[in-house]
Amino acid sequence: MEVDKYGPFVKMGSGHELRFEDDTNFEESYKERALNDLRETPERRAEALEELRRLIREEKKLYLPTDETTELYLLAFLRVCKFYPDSAFKRVKFLYKLRQKNPKYCDDLLPSLEKNVFAQNILTVLPSRDQLGRRILITECGQRWKIKNCTLTEIFRGIELVIEAAILEPRTQVSGTVLLVDFAGLTINHVWQFTPNFAKLVLDWIQYSMPARLKEVHIVNQPYIFNMVFAMFKPFMQEKLRNRMLLHGYDHSSLLAHLDAKCLPIKYGGLLDMETDQGIDLWNLLCYYEDNYKVTNEFGYKKKK
Question: What is the tens place of the pLDDT at every residue in 112-131?
Answer without folding.
Answer: 999 999 999 999 999 999 99
